[in-house]
Amino acid sequence: MSSGDRYSDQDADIDLGGLVGAIWRRRMLVLLSTVVIGGAAFGISSMVAPRYQAETQILIETRNPGLMSAQQNQQIAPEPILDEAGVASQVALLQSSDLIKQVAKTLNLGDRAEFDPAANPDLLTRLLILTRLAKNPLDVPPEERILKEFTSKLQVYQIEKSRVIAIQFSSKDPKLAAQVPTEMAKVYLSLQSGAKLDTTSETAKWLEPEIANLREKVREAEEKVAAYRSSADIYKTGELNTFAETQLNDISVELARVRGERANAEARAESVRATLKSGRNVDTLTDVVSSPMIQRLKETQSGIEGQIADLSTSLLDGHPKLQGLRSQLDGIRRQIRTETQKILSSLVNEAGISRTRERQLIQQLNTLKADNAESEERQVGLKALEREATAQRQLLETYLARYREAVSRQDMNATPADARVISNASMPSEPYFPKVLPITIVAALAGFILSSIFVMLAELFSGRAIRYSGPEYDQEPAPVAQPRRMIEEPAVATASAVESDPADEDEYTDESTSTAAKPAVASLLSLEPDAPALEKSMEQAAEDFIDGEFSVNAVARHLVETDVNIAVSVSLSGDDGSTSTVILARTVAEMGRKTILIDMTGSALPTRLMAENIRQPGITDLLCGEAAFADTIHGDRLSDAHILPHGNANAKRAMRGAERLAMIVDALANAYDLVIVECGPANVEGVKRLARNGQAEIILSTTDANAEEIEAAAGSFIEAGYEDVVLLFGQNNPPSPKSGREAA
Q1: Residues 433, 533: Cα–Cα separation, whole Å
Q2: In sequence order, which residues have a C-beta less than 8 Å from that of residue 151 and are 6 or more positions away?
């Protein structure tokens, strides 16, 4: 196969390490390019004339005249606050040509060469103009040239989420850079105030004839009201009541008073009448007691009663003097009763008078009611005329108030603009452009990046930074450990080879596990690298195998009972031994231990037996950095065990990171109860890359190896310092063609 055909069937990868190495080899070129570009940027930026920038900020808000009273400010309806569109309109106004021309005229910007560079063109421009290759800039009016240059130096924008407008201006002169924004703010406020003043003047001119017309209408309306009131005989005694209404109200009040007096007189007369009729003492009645005549008679009665009482102590009852006094006393009592009758008669007369007055008032009230009803009908027309006159009068008063306000606001100072300056521009002390140091740093960095890109592109186009890798099985695979012998065409295990024989599992009991398995392992743990001891151990191993102590179940129980964390399986029989290791991992998982098998074989047989898909990422992808740790761990399709597959990356390239194998195994040992590393037919040096001495148990997996081969493999691991060596015979065959102790 030609080289071209071979590369056409291979994948091409970019060698990042080679690209970095190429940059390092050409570091002087990269450094020189960086220095040259940085120096050029420093020189050019140093020669550029510095520009200064200043800023003025304007707040857009509604402002009322300061001469108005608080009551007038409350009467005036508040103007709506500008929204985003309104503020944007003010930004456009600040950038208008008329405003800029006025500022340029005020500051005499036309006399500055900075704002009219076309007035003094350089030699090249003149030649282009003479040859008609360029348009003569002097054909444009000076105002247009100044306007264009002014606009290029001006920046007006709205500060985000506010009603503040910033005016920025740049110039070679720092003083001018501060003067322009300040003058623009003044002109803008003047334009706004002038616009409001124009509106006020127009309002006053319109109100003058309207007020004169309204005055005539109000006079006519009031004359109509007065004439109608006179013709309808409707006179007002106050602001609200007419004469008839007032008279009706007075009679109603008088009638109520007379009715009260009548009721009072009748009640008093009835009280006196009841007292006289019942013969009770009239001294309890107020009207009787308050009578002067009664009071004098009472005083005389009291005197006579006193005399009778005094004489009764010295005279007899029949004495003429006592009899005379008693006769006087009876006469006084008759007078008191007579006076009481007179009081009763006066009360009756008073009640009668009140009753007569009441009747008269009722007659007058009825008459006034009829007159008032007619007056109300006549007032309907009067009220209509009054409403019309009132409306005309209110409109006239409103126009008069507006007119007075407009006249008072015709002064410029009384009409403030709806904006104010909150930050005046100050003369800048440092230029904003060019920033020599940042420009130099950025240019040098750009030079470094561009030169590095140039070197990497040259390396890529030359093909030196491209590495070709074919399919995984078209090249010689490189397992973790260097294999002693490789299988050219690995045999695919069948399902019967994956599953253990139930009959074999039933032959072993817990007693054999607890009593026989441990001594067999213990004899392997005490092996020394001398020939007699090794021969004795192999002899004991052959005897133990006959009893089933090195079967898959026995080794699995040994790993669980001794709590082995890391086990390295070396398959002396190639793929057959790897198949036994797969069965061992599944058996340990069924015993409730979290188990993972790492496929480090060249044939990837464990991957094909356990993984759902042979192309799943695995250990080679992890070592090449092409897959994450979590993406390389997969579940076994027939058990609870997990597998770290062989992977899809190139095995030779993966072995460049072989120093990370021990770290990967230790990380998995922290997460799993048992980590089984299937190395295939590996040697001691290859196993050392996976686990350090004393930290892993070595499993020699075989199905048909003879005693010499087992002896050599076990001896090499024992000599290397691995004391924990366990034999695994997956197919229950004797360890050699020989039998019994001859094999040992």
Answers
A1: 89
A2: 95, 100
Cα separation, 46 vs 42, in Å, equals: 6
Per residue in 332-361, pLDDT (tens digit) is 777 777 777 777 777 778 778 888 888 888
Residue type at position 129: I
Q: CA 126 to CA 115: how far, in whole Å?
A: 19
Place of tokens 């019994």: 740
Token look-up 């608080």 returns 70
d(CA 581, CA 588): 11
CA nearest to 255, candidates 171, 326, 358: 358
10 Å CB burial of residue 2 (0-12, 13-18, 19+) is exposed
- pLDDT tens digits, 200-224: 777 778 888 888 888 888 888 888 8
Which tokens hold the place of 532?
A: 């007699």
Separation CA 427–CA 433 (nearest Å): 15
Strand, coil or helix: 178: helix
Structure tokens at 44: 């050019």
Closest to 614 in 3D by CA, of 492, 488, 701: 492
What residues form DSSP beta bridges with 702? 729
Question: Where are the alpha helices (H) located in 562-660, listed in sequence order?
Answer: 575-590, 605-610, 619-624, 651-654
Tokens for 127, please give them: 């030649």
Contact 214, 392 (CB under 8 A): yes
Residues in the chain: 744
Helix (H) or strand (E) holding 306: helix 292-311
Contact in structure between 643 and 564 (CB atoms under 8 Å): no
Predicted confidence (pLDDT) per residue in 617-641, tens digit:
998 888 888 888 888 899 998 888 9
Can you tell me the distance from the alpha carbon of 637 to that of 589, in angstroms, rounded to the nearest whole number?
13
Flag the least confident range among 286-290, 385-389, 448-452. 286-290
Cα 211 to chain centroid distance, Å, stands at: 58
Enumerate residues 6+ apart whose C-beta is below 8 A from 714: 524, 527, 534, 537, 538, 700, 725, 727
By CB atoms closer than 10 A (0-12, 13-18, 19+), residue 43 is: exposed
Q: What is the DSSP string of 496-513?
A: HHHSPPHHHHHT--HHHI
